């Protein structure tokens, strides 16, 4: 994006266009348009409120994107600067690294996100604006055009609130859509034509729908005096306009106004931010009687689509207020966008596409500021009548979208030659540093500074509103600290082999599971392509590559999705063993799906709602449930839900389940659960020795560390025992260690031979009972002998301690050994019991405790005979 | 003059002795990593190499150290950790977590303890916040984030590993082993257990994830080495302040180890139990008998100690019983002989006792029934007899079925040592039919 006007080199001159609108209460002067002149160039760029603009940022290549909400000058300040209020968008690269995965897909190159984060500073220096840009809103299901030549177009699909990505709310969408469409309109001189389009003014619809983009205009009417702030665009914490109830707000601003009357300053303007006062402007229209209806009209048109924005519930307290406002001020039906937006998205930057709208309003219009005041007031009411207006809204939205598409005119900037230029012009320093908008913590500092400054100027009543919100407490980040010293890389061949043989090493391919891979891949792919859902059950003994294969499938599908071979999807994985309790699965799924945290029950409800109800079209979700058998509950509701969701058409959920036993569905599931699971089954057979050998060879590719015979030996051994690939790898790994230890020369340990492998196999699989018996003390061995003798005598496999003791004493007498006391024998017995050579009852039974052998009698005899 | 000299000597000795006792007791009672390891060089090498690979190369591993009680499992791991921490490139780069199955009795507690010891970010002060589920996912998330090369390796030491296998679903073990088998934060899971059948306790999917490395500690030394250990354990270190005394002491130890009686005692002890903990117990008892007047350990001390060690505890109890109680035990013994170990009740014992009393004309032993009952109850309290079923309130105590927890040989041995045992009682014990 190097072709953005390079501000570093050129000087830009900023000047207001049109007459200022005076906001007495806030001591603002607001404008509707700003003119940017490039020095040495005759062209002037006019940017109007409502357009989307690029704003200088930390990164010259990727300037910030925002929608202009308001232009104003704070006039109580001697060095008045031009300020602007914006609604931010974020680029994907501005989203913190750790949150990026939440998007769940790859963003398109020119995709941006409506920044729905109220805590962000939205008050910037107007002189950091680089130029207009176009932002196009896309429906959630629309695909972002990938390779557009025009880099001045951005696309908005979702909003980002620092926690998660959300599709644009329909209101927001409509507003953006309208902006987009509005822009071409604006290019024509505002005239009769526009008016005709806007006809709705005065019609009932208007009441229903109206809320208007003109919200900016409201802000413009204030003449602002600026603080001596360096020309930096700052995104500031904007509190006043946020979720605060409007009613107090109004009261306050009224107070302010009254206060201002008495203030020593000759003019009654006050420095303030327009958002705060906006509701109070109701009264203003009267003061500006000069409005011609004609002028109002264009604004109205703009408003209609906007009205759909912002339908949150936040505003319930506002509603009453707003209604009242409407009644009083309805004639001037303009609605101010700002209002509509601010409650929804507050001062946050979000991913709406700033479509550049040059509004037809011209200088004259600016004179007619009155509307804005009302607009703001009225802007909110739409919420109350949201429902009733839903239909209308939809229709309008459709139309708008259509219009927007048809008008592909990308010329967003309109140069108004006749613009009145107010007399502020600023030079941009060459150095980009001071003029950059900061999203860094500094923001808050400077904000605080400003607010304190302001508070000194304002009536005290206002200040509390402006104090910055406490930040949400930083969440603990799960992380193990990093090591100071990097881990050593393998140096010798054996070390390298060991690294590759570790189970955790991810092989490039999964040999010997091609068929299974293909089956699963085809299953999932078909579901993806058909936009349907389904279940699959995968079984197999541990260590046969079930999970690895599914991971591989998902990896391949993700690649395919990137290449647009299959539709994009989301992948979620849960493991029954990693849950404390079956119902926690809901919590995990919900968290991975949306980032929300909820209790198990609530999460279940949310998920059911998501998967069962007809929601907005979404991408397919692939859910991998590992260790399914642990999700068994008495009512089996967890399993039931997991398998029931995919049966709903809207869910578009593919569930892959993994467990060990082949007949799990028949064994533990109720009919209604297993029926939903369906018959798509797959079972992973244990590896044969050929396959194990192949796996080893493929892992050790090009690495001559093992003798061929050795590999074959271990493959056969493991295949005979379990067919567990993990075991096979572990044995080989241990063999390399043994080889390393046994070799004399540390640098050239040589190959791992059959001998080494046999040693490793013995170490892992040989029973330790016999060695344990051989190494036990004389008395312990005598006790074991006595047990055998007693068993032989009684013909049972169980004896009481007393019986064995008398046998033991008899044996000792025969051999002429000193015979043990009862306490010693008891100690020996419990010692053997703790090793589990014997199975013994709890020792409180004393003489009567029953003893069994945990080893076969032959083994004991064998071990004892050796000596 | 000479007496004063000996007194001086005594004072010096007393001073030295208290130091000797302190040093040796520390050695016997603590599993300090400064103790020497005996006969486990191979196992030690295996373990230390494995830990080094985890610490230096970031390779995940899991291993079980299996050996009977007192075989030096904890000493081994302590040694290995000590050596590991002495390596410069390791000591800053490793975290360890110690868990004990007796303390962390379920996964919830274990998770909190792990989180606390790792000092993750949800730890405030010494407390861990969040629910069980949150803690688990938090910990897993934390471990998952790491990778082989950049994360600090964590060594998990699970003492009494078999008890962890009894936790519900073996969630903790599954997750630890799963991490050790996947490309996450490098961890080494080291389990200590005395159960030889430990692998059978693991669920199959847990077992599959375990690397099947086992280090067995078996006390596989013979008697000559046992004597050598005995010598080493008693010897004073070179840095002992009073060189002269240390020299003398070590000389006496050397002499002891060659003494025939001492070897006999050691052999006997060795035959009973090979583990070093019981040797320590023996030496501790012997050490306590060393006084300023007899500043060096003698063979007699060891023999005495051995006797204490191998004493039959129940026979000792019998020595303290009254004649009436002895008589009751003899009556029970006869009942056992007659009815072949069938349980008996108080009434039967009382009848048997009455027979003996009537036979002997002098009614010295003729106690009233409640007195006998009291004696009977006392025996029950001493757990020399044990009721067959749990005592229920309504059943009559006289008819409750009991079993004797003494063996015939024990009774006869105890009677022989019983002080002032009446001759007729002794005769009656020898044969229930002697009156015929």
CATH topology of the largest domain in chain B: Rossmann fold
> Number of domains in the coordinates of chain B?
3
In the CATH hierarchy, what is the class of one domain in chain A? Alpha Beta
Architecture of the largest domain in chain B in CATH?
3-Layer(aba) Sandwich
Query: Can you give the helix content of chain A as a percent range?
Result: 40-55%
Mean pLDDT of chain A: 68
Identify low-pLDDT runs of chain A.
1-9, 182-389, 404-474
N-end to C-end Cα span of chain B: 72 Å
Q: What are the segments of chain B in which pLDDT stays under 50 over at least 5 consecutive residues? A: none
Gyration radius of chain A (Cα, Å) is 38 Å
Main β-sheet description of chain A: 6 strands, mixed, barrel
Protein name (chain A): Origin recognition complex subunit 1
Pfam families (chain A): AAA, BAH, Cdc6-ORC-like_ATPase_lid, WHD_Cdc6
Main location (chain A): nucleus
GO molecular function (chain A): ATP binding; ATP hydrolysis activity; chromatin binding; DNA replication origin binding; metal ion binding
């Amino acid at each position: 994006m190097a072709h953005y006007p390079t501000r570093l080199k050129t000087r830009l001159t900023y000047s207001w266009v049109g007459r200022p609108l005076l906001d007495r209460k806030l001591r603002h002067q607001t404008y509707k348009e700003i003119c940017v002149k490039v020095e040495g160039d005759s062209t002037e760029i006019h940017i109007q409120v409502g357009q989307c603009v690029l704003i200088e940022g930390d990164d010259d290549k990727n300037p910030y994107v925002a929608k202009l909400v308001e232009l104003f000058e704070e006039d109580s300040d001697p060095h008045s600067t031009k300020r602007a209020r914006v609604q931010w968008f974020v680029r994907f690269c501005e989203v913190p690294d750790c949150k990026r995965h939440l998007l769940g897909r790859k963003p398109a190159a020119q995709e941006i996100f409506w920044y729905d984060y109220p805590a962000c500073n939205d008050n910037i220096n107007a002189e950091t604006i680089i130029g207009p840009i176009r932002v196009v809103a896309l429906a959630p299901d629309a695909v972002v055009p990938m390779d557009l030549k025009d880099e001045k177009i951005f696309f908005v699909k979702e909003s980002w609130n620092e926690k998660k990505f959300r599709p644009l709310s329909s209101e927001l969408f409509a507003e953006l859509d309208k902006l987009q469409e509005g822009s071409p309109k604006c290019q024509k001189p505002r005239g009769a034509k526009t008016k005709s389009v806007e006809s709705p003014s005065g019609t009932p619809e208007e009441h229903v729908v109206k809320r208007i983009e003109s919200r900016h205009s409201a802000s413009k009417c204030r003449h602002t005096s600026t603080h001596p702030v360096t020309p930096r665009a700052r995104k500031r914490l904007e509190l006043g306009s946020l979720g605060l109830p409007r009613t107090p707000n109004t009261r306050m601003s009224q107070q302010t106004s009254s206060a201002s009357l008495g203030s020593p300053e000759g003019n009654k303007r006050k420095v303030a931010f327009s958002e705060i006062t906006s509701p109070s402007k109701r009264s203003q229209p009267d003061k500006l009687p000069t409005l011609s209806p004609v002028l109002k009209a264009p604004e109205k048109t703009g408003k209609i689509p906007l009205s759909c924005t912002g339908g949150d519930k936040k505003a319930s307290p506002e509603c009453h207020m707003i209604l009242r406002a409407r009644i009083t001020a309805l004639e001037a039906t303009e609605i101010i966008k700002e209002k509509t937006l601010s409650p929804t998205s507050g001062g946050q930057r979000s991913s709406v596409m700033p479509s550049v709208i040059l509004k037809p309003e011209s200088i004259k219009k600016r004179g007619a500021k009155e509307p804005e005041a009302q607009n703001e007031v009225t802007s909110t009411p739409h919420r109350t009548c949201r429902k009733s207006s839903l239909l209308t809204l939809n229709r309008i939205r459709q139309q708008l979208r259509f219009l927007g598409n048809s008008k592909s005119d990308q010329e967003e900037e309109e140069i108004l030659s006749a613009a009145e230029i107010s007399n502020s012009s600023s030079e941009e320093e060459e150095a980009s540093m001071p003029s950059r908008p900061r999203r860094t913590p500094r923001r808050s500092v400077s904000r605080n500074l400003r607010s304190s400054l302001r508070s000194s100027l304002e009536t005290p009543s206002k200040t509390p509103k402006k104090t910055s919100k406490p930040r949400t407490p930083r969440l603990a980040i799960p992380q193990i600290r990093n090591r100071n010293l990097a881990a050593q890389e393998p140096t010798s061949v054996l070390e390298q082999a060991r690294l590759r043989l570790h189970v955790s090493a991810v092989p490039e391919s999964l040999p010997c599971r091609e068929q299974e891979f293909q089956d699963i891949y085809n299953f999932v792919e078909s579901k993806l392509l058909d936009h349907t859902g389904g279940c699959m059950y995968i079984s197999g003994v541990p260590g046969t590559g079930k999970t690895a294969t599914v991971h591989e499938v998902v990896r391949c599908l993700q690649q395919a999705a990137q290449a647009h071979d299959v539709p994009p999807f989301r992948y979620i994985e849960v493991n029954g063993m990693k849950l404390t309790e079956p119902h926690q699965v809901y919590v995990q799924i919900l968290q991975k799906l949306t980032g929300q945290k909820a209790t198990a029950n609530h999460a279940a409800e949310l998920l059911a709602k998501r998967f069962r109800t007809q929601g907005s079209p979404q991408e397919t979700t692939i859910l991998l449930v590992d260790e399914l058998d642990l999700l068994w509950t008495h009512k089996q509701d967890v399993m039931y839900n997991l398998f029931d969701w995919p049966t709903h058409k809207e869910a578009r959920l593919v569930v892959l389940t993994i467990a060990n036993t082949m007949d799990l569905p028949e064994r533990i599931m109720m009919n209604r659960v297993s029926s939903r699971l369906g018959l798509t089954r797959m079972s992973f057979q244990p590896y044969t020795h050929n396959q194990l050998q192949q796996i080893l060879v493929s892992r050790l590719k090009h690495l001559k560390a093992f003798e061929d015979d050795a590999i074959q030996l271990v493959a056969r051994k493991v295949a005979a025992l379990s067919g567990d690939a993990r075991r096979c790898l572990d044995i080989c790994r241990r063999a390399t260690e043994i080889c390393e230890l046994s070799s004399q020369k540390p640098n050239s340990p040589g190959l791992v031979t059959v001998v080494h492998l046999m040693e490793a196999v013995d170490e892992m699989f040989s029973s330790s009972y016999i060695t344990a018996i051989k190494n036990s003390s004389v008395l312990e061995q005598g006790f074991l002998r006595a047990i055998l003798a007693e068993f032989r005598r009684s013909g049972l496999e169980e004896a009481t301690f007393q019986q064995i003791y008398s046998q033991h004493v008899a044996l000792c007498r025969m051999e002429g050994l000193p015979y043990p006391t009862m306490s010693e024998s008891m100690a020996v017995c419990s010692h053997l019991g703790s090793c589990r050579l014997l199975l013994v009852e709890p020792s409180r039974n004393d003489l009567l405790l029953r003893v069994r052998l945990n080893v076969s009698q032959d083994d004991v005899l064998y071990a004892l005979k050796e000596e | 003059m000479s007496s004063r000299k000996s007194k001086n000597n005594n004072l010096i000795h007393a001073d030295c002795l208290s130091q000797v006792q302190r040093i040796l007791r520390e050695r016997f009672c603590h599993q300090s990593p400064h103790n020497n390891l005996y006969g486990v060089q191979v196992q030690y090498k295996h373990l230390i190499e494995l830990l080094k690979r985890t610490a230096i190369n970031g390779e995940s591993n899991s291993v079980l150290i299996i050996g009977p009680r007192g075989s030096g499992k904890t000493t081994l791991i302590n040694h290995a950790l000590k050596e590991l921490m002495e390596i410069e490139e390791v000591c800053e780069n490793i975290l360890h977590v110690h868990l004990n199955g007796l303390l962390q009795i379920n996964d919830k507690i274990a998770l909190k303890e792990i989180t606390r010891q790792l000092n993750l970010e949800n730890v405030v002060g010494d407390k861990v916040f969040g629910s069980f589920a949150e803690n688990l996912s938090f910990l897993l998330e934390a471990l998952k984030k790491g990778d082989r090369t950049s994360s600090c390796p964590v060594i998990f030491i699970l003492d009494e590993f078999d008890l962890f296998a009894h936790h519900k679903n073996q969630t903790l073990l599954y997750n630890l082993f799963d991490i050790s088998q996947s490309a996450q934060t490098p961890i080494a899971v080291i389990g200590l257990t005395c159960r030889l059948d430990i692998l059978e306790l693991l669920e199959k999917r847990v077992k599959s994830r375990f690397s099947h490395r086992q280090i067995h500690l078996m006390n596989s030394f013979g008697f000559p080495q046992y004597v050598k250990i005995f010598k080493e354990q008693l010897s004073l270190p070179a840095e002992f302040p009073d060189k002269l005394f240390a020299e003398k002491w070590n000389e006496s130890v050397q002499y002891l180890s060659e003494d025939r009686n001492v070897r006999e005692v050691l052999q006997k002890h060795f035959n009973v139990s090979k583990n070093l903990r019981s040797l320590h117990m023996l030496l501790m008892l012997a050490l306590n008998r060393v006084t300023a007047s007899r500043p060096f350990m003698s063979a007699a001390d060891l023999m005495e100690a051995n006797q204490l060690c191998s004493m039959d505890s129940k026979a000792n109890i019998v020595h303290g019983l009254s004649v009436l109680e002895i008589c009751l035990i003899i009556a029970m013994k006869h009942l056992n002989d007659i009815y072949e170990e069938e349980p008996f009740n108080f009434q039967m014992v009382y009848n048997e006792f009455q027979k003996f009393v009537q036979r002997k004309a002098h009614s010295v032993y003729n106690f009233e029934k409640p007195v006998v009952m009291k004696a009977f109850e006392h025996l029950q309290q001493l757990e020399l007899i044990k009721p067959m079923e749990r005592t229920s309130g309504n059943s009559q105590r006289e008819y409750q079925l009991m079993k004797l927890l003494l063996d015939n040989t024990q009774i006869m041995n105890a009677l022989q040592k019983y002080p002032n045992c009446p001759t007729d009682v002794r005769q009656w014990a020898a044969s229930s039919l002697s009156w015929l």
